[in-house]
Every structure is written in structure tokens, then in C-alpha cells.
Design a protein that fits this description.
Helix 3 packs antiparallel against helix 4 and helix 4 packs parallel to helix 8 (216-224). The protein has 8 helices and 8 strands. It has helices at 28-33, 47-55, 69-81, 85-104, 130-137, 156-161, 177-192, 216-224; strands at 38-42, 59-63, 111-116, 122-123, 140-142, 153-154, 166-170, 201-204. The model has no long low-confidence stretch (mean pLDDT 94). It is an alpha/beta fold.
Length: 228
């Protein structure tokens, strides 16, 4: 690993790796200067820069998993390309086992949910995403359904008409879990017109369910732990 983006922060050592810029604006000069042979890319990376790298004999592997099982396929491909096929196959196998266990241990059937990725405006995801696929396999019902818009912006009115049983939210930066829940209760209370209304808010640990990689095993275990 000769470089990564300023967003790469896991494992901790990733923070100390040479930075080539942001997700949507990487520096071609920095990538080439490090003698890069392979670039891992995804949707949202600028196509013109990826094509430039390919013209300069740098192999670009682009991934955008749509189903959760595609994450293990992705890991197998990457590990083979970097000469670590055995390790990659073992990790992919662990992910596949986790997915099978999630399906087998399904205890949340018919429980409606929304995962709010951000407020003001509110963004979430549909079933037609790899993360939506995980929840579906776990028996949760996404109030967005299989919308062709994979990461739609939703209105307060939509939440009013389609109140979920569970609100999944990330911890607010610099706030404790308890503080984050209180802030979210206030935001939701304003939407539903009742600041005293009770909401079933589940705080999801940072990044375990929003980045398609090895930590998805931890994310699946977290979903399995939600019993009520």
C-alpha cells in the first residue's frame, strides 16, 4: 500500500499512509509519483482521471457492489491481484459464513426501519444497495422499499406517513451515544410534532455498516444483536 485517501482511517495505520487526496478529487501526480501499479476505485471517483491512469499503464480495478455477497467476490479479486489470494479467500469465506448466519438467525421479520445517513436534508438508502441487501437478509423491512433511487432524499412528510419501528443512526461526532440519542429524539420530535414521543433509536457503531469491506462481519453481528 503506497497511498490512500484522506477518508481512509481503518485500521489505525491507514491514517499514516501517504495521502493522494480526496475520494472525488485524487491527485494524479501523487498517485504516479509513488510508483503505483494498481488503483482501487469505485463509483464517484472521476472517470477522466481513472482513464488517464490506465493510459499510463496503471491497472484500475473498479468496484461498486450492489449485493452484500459481492463484497466477498471483490475481496477475492483484490487479494489475487496483490498476491495475497490465500488470505483473501479466508476472509471472503468468513464474510460468506456471516451472511448465511444472518439469514438463518433471522429474528426481525416484518420490523420496519429507516437508516438515516444524514439530516438536513434527510438521506437514506433503498433495498437496491448492498447495505439495503444486508437489512433485507436480516428480515428488516425498509420503508423506502426497492426504490430505483438507491440513496434517496426523503421528506418529513414521508417519515410522517411511513413511521418505522426502528430508526438507525450514526453517532454524532464529538458526542456520546446518549447525547446523540437525545439530539436525534429532538429532531424526530419536531418532525412528528411531539417532542415527548418515544422513538426506537439504534446508534450504529462508526462505519461497520456503511463501508463495503471486512468490517461487514462486525456489522452483521451488530444487526443480529438487535432483538427488540
Amino acid at each position: 500500500m503506497v497511498g490512500n485517501t484522506i477518508l481512509c482511517d481503518y485500521p489505525l495505520q491507514a491514517k499514516n499512509v501517504y495521502k493522494i487526496g480526496n475520494f472525488n478529487n485524487p491527485s494524479i501526480e501523487r498517485i504516479i509519483s509513488k510508483g503505483t501499479n494498481i488503483v482501487l476505485a469505485t463509483d464517484g471517483n472521476p472517470d477522466d482521471k481513472l482513464k488517464f491512469l490506465e493510459k499510463n499503464n496503471i491497472k484500475v480495478l473498479k468496484f461498486q457492489p450492489q449485493k452484500v455477497n459481492e463484497i466477498s467476490d471483490m475481496i477475492k479479486i483484490i487479494s489475487k491481484e496483490i498476491g495475497a489470494a490465500e488470505k483473501g479467500n479466508k476472509l471472503a469465506s468468513k464474510i460468506d459464513i456471516s451472511i448465511k448466519n444472518l439469514i438463518r438467525n433471522n429474528v426481525n421479520k416484518k420490523r420496519k426501519f429507516v437508516f438515516i445517513l444524514q439530516f438536513d436534508p434527510i438521506y437514506t438508502f433503498s433495498e437496491e444497495t448492498w447495505i439495503g441487501d444486508i437489512f433485507k437478509l436480516g428480515g428488516f423491512i425498509n420503508i423506502i422499499g426497492n426504490s430505483p433511487v438507491k440513496y434517496p432524499k426523503i421528506t418529513d412528510e414521508f417519515l410522517l406517513k411511513n413511521k418505522p419501528d426502528i430508526f438507525f443512526l450514526g453517532n454524532i461526532e464529538g458526542k456520546s451515544k446518549e447525547e446523540s440519542i437525545e439530539i436525534y429524539k429532538t429532531k424526530l420530535g419536531k418532525i412528528y410534532g411531539d417532542l415527548k414521543e418515544k422513538f426506537n433509536i439504534v446508534i450504529v457503531p462508526k462505519d461497520i455498516l456503511v463501508r463495503p469491506g471486512p468490517r461487514i462481519i462486525e456489522g452483521i453481528k451488530f444487526l443480529e444483536s438487535i432483538k427488540s
